[in-house]
Amino acid sequence: MNIFFEVHRDIPREGPGNNESTRKAYQLIEKYVSQPVILDIGCGPGMQTIELAGITDGKIMAADLNEDFLKVLAERAEQQGFSKKVDLQKADMRNLPFEKEQFDVIWSEGAIYIIGFEKGLKEWKRFVKQDGIVAVTEFTWLKDNAPKEARDFWDEAYPEAGTIDSNVQVAKSLGYRLIDSFVLPESAWWKDYYTPLEERLSLLRKKYKDHEDALKVISDTQQEIDLYRNYHEYYGYVFYLFQKVD
Ligand SMILES: C[S@@+](CC[C@H](N)C(=O)[O-])C[C@H]1O[C@@H](n2cnc3c(N)ncnc32)[C@H](O)[C@@H]1O
Fold it and tell me: How far is the CA of 237 from the centre of ligand 1 (A)?
């Protein structure tokens, strides 16, 4: 099995986030949509998809490139009685197979960084109706004097990372207006993501003690977790709620 998938499989989420934040974000956009058709891009195992399915009176198309995650989400949707409300589609966020203005809402938690914040907002815009919503979470610098260790790690991992102001400016320049934004709580990094991930790492460290490549993936993941433990006030995930205005 691919070591990256072995590190990441069977954990509730694949990035920072929690159901409270999904609900809070949805409540902030609810008045702009009714019975929305929602596209959840990079849905992963779909914790946010299931939460959305429980609160929206609309329908959700959940898209991801990874079929294993889509299978997990299909099972979760079935168990929760949401099979009719949630459709699944294997799709590449860089080349989405949807119609122009097919969706009222685009939702994407912890995934727009894969295409890049600016490129994602630009390319996905055509799939949203006029006055529709784009709701994304994005890694964001919260203070500008982050310690060198954190800066170096994230400058290499995600050089495009911006501040709240710079990200909002990018969105405005692309024809969106900011409805609201909020920083995800620290607990959203730990409970369903870093804590189960760290438990997995300690098991895999033993299993792969003689495999150099696997140990490198494990130690890089541990480094990311330790950085957040030490420097969480300097960066975070921010929920951005935008409306397509032109
Ligand atoms: C960090 S995870 C976030 C998953 C989920 N939204 C969550 O918060 O738990 C990023 C997701 O994007 C998916 N992904 C990676 N590259 C992709 C691509 N080119 N197109 C669509 N999905 C992609 C991954 O399979 C993964 O499920």
Answer: 15
The answer to whether residue 148 scores a pLDDT higher than 70 is: yes
Q: What is the pLDDT of residue 10?
A: 82
Q: Longest C-alpha distance within the chain, in Å?
A: 56
- 138 ligand 1 Cβ < 6 A: no
Q: 3-state class of 246 per DSSP?
A: coil
The residues spanned by each domain of the chain are 13-142+157-185+233-244
Supply the DSSP string of 181-209, one letter for each residue. EEEPPTHHHIIIIIHHHHHHHHHHHHHTT
In tens, the pLDDT along 167-213 reads 999 999 999 999 999 999 999 999 999 999 999 999 999 999 999 99
The CATH architecture to which 13-142+157-185+233-244 belongs is 3-Layer(aba) Sandwich (3.40)
Pocket of ligand 1 contains residue 44 by CB under 6 Å: yes
Give the position, in ligand 1's atom list, of the atom nearest the Cα of 94.
19
The residue count of the chain comes to 246
- Ligand 1 centre to CA of 164 (Å) is 22
d(CA 104, CA 90): 20
State in Å: Cα 180 to ligand 1 middle: 24
3-state secondary structure of 186: coil
Are 46 and 69 in contact by the 8 Å Cβ rule? The answer is: yes
Distance from Cα 65 to the centre of ligand 1, integer Å: 7
